[in-house]
Structure formats: C-alpha cells, structure tokens
Design goal:
34% helix, six-stranded mixed β-sheet, UDP-N-acetylmuramoyl-L-alanine:D-glutamate ligase, 3 domains, 17 helices, globular, 482 residues, Protein-Tyrosine Phosphatase, Chain A, Udp-n-acetylmuramoylalanyl-d-glutamate--2,6- Diaminopimelate Ligase, Chain: A, domain 1
Amino acid sequence: MLTHTIMRLAALLQEVEHLAVSGELEGEVSRITADSCTAEPGALFVAIPGSKRDGHDYIEGAISRGAAVVVGERDLNPQNVTYIQVADSRRALAELAAAFYGYPTKNLFTVGITGTKGKTTVAHLAQSILGERETELISTIVNNLERGIVNTTPDPLAIQRIACEALQGGKENFVLEVSAHGLSQFRVHRVDFDVAVFTGLSHDHLDYYGTLEDYLKAKLQLFTSLRSHNLAIVNLDDPHSRRVIEATAARILTYGLSPEAAIQADRIRLELDRSRFLVHTPKGEIAIETGLPGEFNVYNILAAIGVGLAHGLELEEIKRGIERLKRVEGRFERFGAKDGFDIVIDFAHSPDALEKMIKALRPHYRRVITVFGCGGESDWLKRPVMGEISGRLSDYTIITSDNPKSEDPPKIVQEIERGIKEIGAAYEAIIERRAAIRRALKLARPGDVVLIAGKGHERTQVFADHEEEFNDREFLHREGVI
C-alpha cells in the first residue's frame, strides 16, 4: 500500500502551469481529488468541466467538506480557500498528480501502448515477457476486474498512484494501455514513457473525434511526447505508420509481416488453437509457438517482442515470456460446446476487429454464426458498418444489445440493421442478449462456430437506469453449454 503523502502547497504549485493565485500558499496538501464528494480537510479539489457535469458547480460542496485549495478554469474568488486559476483543469490535474506522487514513472521502465486494437493483448504479453512480479500493468481487463475502473486509461491520479505503489513495492516496469481519450484528456500527461507502441489505426470513436484524421492526431500525441533517447515501436504494415514515424523524435523500431520491418514474421502457420511462425529481429531469429491464434496475434506478439528487445532481454527470455501467456480473458477464447460446435468469445467491438475475427474463423468452420451489438454513447457511425461486415462475412448474424447505456436499445439495433439490410444478408434482431445467445446456440450444428463478440471480459451490462451482472462466458456455463 502507498505510504501517506503530504506535500507543501507552495512546492506543489511550482509544478503546475497556472494563470493566477488567490489566498495563502503556506499550507499542506494531503489529498488531491476531482470528486467533491471525497474532499476532506487538507484536500485540493480540481474542478473539471465535463460533457455532462461541470466541476466548477461543485466547488462549494468541496469547500464545505473541508477542501483547503481549489483549482479551476473560471475567474473566481471563493472565500476561505486558496484558489488557483489554470487554463486547463485536466492538464493541471495531471501535473498535480505527477508532482504529488513524486514522478514515479521516471524511475520505472514505462511502456505506453496505443492503437485501435491489440492494446490489451500486447500489454499482457509485455508483462509476461518483462516478468509479472516485476511489472505493474494498467489494462482494460485489470482495470475492470481488479480495480473497478471503467476506462482503459484511468485518470491521472489513479495512474500516478498505481505507479507510485508499484515503485514502492519494488517493481521495475510499468506497462499501460493508452487510449485516444486518455491522450486528448491529458490522463498520461507527465507520464515519463521510455517506449511507445503503435499497433495500428482503424474506424472507432468518430463520435468524439469527428474524422479519422483527428482520431489519428490524438494517437500521435503519445509519439510527439517522446524524446530522442526513447523508442517508438511501430506496426509498419499499418497505412498510418509513416505518420507516426514522422511525428516522433524517438528512435524507431518497426514490426510487421513486411520484409522491410525490423521485427518480421514469416513461415506463418495459423491453426485454431495455436500459431507457429519464425521471427527475424535485429538480434537474430526466434521460432514462436503460441496458444494465441489468429494473424492479429502474430502482430501483437511482434509488438511485444519489440518491448522485450527495448528492455535489453535476450531472445530466449522473450520466447519464454510469450509461451507463459496461455490466454487473455475475453480475447479469442474458444470453447467446445457439448453438441459438437465451437463457441468463441471476443471483445471485438470495432469494424476492423470484428472483420479480422470472422475472417480468422471462416477457414476452420462449416458456418460462422455471429452474435454482436454496439455500445451506447459511442460512435454511431460504426454501427451500420459493423452490420455490413457481419452480414458479408458470417453465414448468419444475430444483432443484439451490448452496453446500451443511456441510448434506446432498439434504436441501436436498427442502426446496425441498416448495414446488413443493404446487402440482403441473413440475420435476425433479438435485443435481449441472453435470448440472442440462446437463439444462436439453437441454430448451431456440428462443424459450426458461434462468435459472441463485443463484451469479452466484461462482467456487467450497462443500461440507462441500472447495471446488471452479465458475462458471456459465465452465462454459457450457467446454461450448461460449455
């Protein structure tokens, strides 16, 4: 556990870009928070404007709970507290968090992984290669299942606290998934990255960014932050790789199937339960056999090999680390049903990820039956695209709910239907996810596969007014199917 941290306000303020200060600077800060409900005596409250709520409206509540310092963007003069005006509260929160926890990432081998897909698997592979005992991991799965954190990339207070605890606990490495939102909202500002990995870019989050170009620019921020002694590991086969390479001052290490890649795979043999291939690296060749199937996992492994090389590990150490990782929860998990067909659970929730998953299954099965939905409050533009992809590549599609959140589930399903109707593919819509999965299982025959996509490791389903416990794999167990 983290030892209690106290820092003098005057010293803390030196680390933050600010516009104006009113009030005393002689006090101490024992807690930083952006949640007024957790303010207490000695706390510093950061008022962050959001899309639904504005933290400035909760300043009085924070003060009433004992906050002694308030940071915000508005020109205010609250009574009986020190007020620090900043240009951007999110940026200030990141600067405060890093200073408060003593800039822990400066003393850890810190790896940031970004890209539309592959982040989670690369992160878990990197941890296995670098050593689980020696490596702290911030990933979608670990956040959700162990920390109760919804976001792929947590807020900067959580990131810096976890890094500080890792350092105090004797860990040497810090691996984290870096989302586009995390970059745009300064969540990794003042994280000292040694290595940044670019897995690739495809359609996602365009509700937030508007265009693929703006989405790419958000990702590029990770690489523009690197210095000349840092390393950028880049998927050379991605069409955006050149932009990443041009954007950074860091040294470059490329990977891919292209012969031009510094880390390159060939002699690839893909089977349902394993992959075999030969990897050429600047340090020599290494033969890989892994239980992580699919060509996309070949790419994920190449990226993770790059992380191992960046840390100075020998190829045999890297090979052992890859072989130690048997599975990543909710990523291409395959189960044999009692009635002779297979079931695959995967987190695929973007067009490219869904397409690659179905294509990976097609050669091995008589029919592919796909069950999927799209999350609410997120990129409605991808919904008909994913409908078209499933309709074109699957033999049968069942459209259902994912996490509708505040949106109307039938409306989301109808938007997915637009894409599949345009090509006249076979499908049906069953909004309730349990019923949709049951229907797919009823349709499946020996030699078929049922792909259940979109939620992967998730343990709940989120609706407008409530959250239900639900996990695809646990549901299959309860149904007695696997």
